[in-house]
Design a protein that fits this description.
Strand order of the largest sheet: 1-2-3-5-4
Shape: globular
CATH class of one domain: Mainly Beta
Radius of gyration: 13 Å
Number of helices: 1
Length: about 80
């Protein structure tokens, strides 16, 4: 799993069929600062810290046999806990 922070939204006018409602978000990996695009079904927003999975784990979450996604936001990190 990867910890990251949402830095922005990626606008897409067309999406393939089979994707659930959601958004493509630009995230910045912590630490290191690498940026990538992740699919979000949770409604995450800019500045929010999130947990991300990649590869077959991300694609396996969907019902479709072959979904062309490599990164999926699966959780929100609560910064007020602890």
């Amino acid at each position: 799993m990867i910890q990251a922070r949402v830095v922005g939204k990626v606008w897409s006018t067309k999406k393939i069929t089979g994707l659930p409602p959601g958004a493509f978000l630009e995230i910045e990996v912590e630490p290191g600062g690498a940026r990538l695009i992740a699919f979000d079904v949770l409604g995450s927003g800019p500045g929010e810290r999130v947990l991300v999975v990649q590869g077959s784990v991300a694609a396996g979450w969907f019902d479709a046999k072959s979904v062309p996604l490599d990164a999926l936001i699966i959780g929100s990190i609560d910064e007020s806990a602890g």
